[in-house]
Write a structure and sequence with these properties.
There is one protein chain. This protein is about 50% helix and about 0% strand. The chain is mainly alpha-helical and about 70 residues long. It is globular.
């Protein structure tokens, strides 16, 4: 059984992971509301690592959606 940081009911995560988990939930909810992903979206490892990098550099979840799905220049 796999777990996801998007699972709101997931118990047993280290407390240190809570800010990133909250960021990911906000990212997911915004991405769905903005029409970038469907509610059934499956996050792959490469994308998860990119999002973790966005979080680590201080982007907001909204900025993370823009960075991941925004127009390329």
């Amino acid at each position: 059984m796999s777990t996801s940081c998007l699972d709101r009911d997931l118990a047993g995560l280290p407390e240190a992971s809570l800010p990133f988990r909250q960021w990911m939930i906000a990212w997911y909810l915004y991405a769905v509301a903005d029409g970038q992903i469907e509610t059934t979206y499956n996050l792959d490892t490469a994308t998860a690592e990119r999002l973790e990098g966005y979080f680590a550099t201080g982007l907001t979840p909204v900025e993370g959606v823009g960075a991941l799905f925004g127009a390329l220049h």
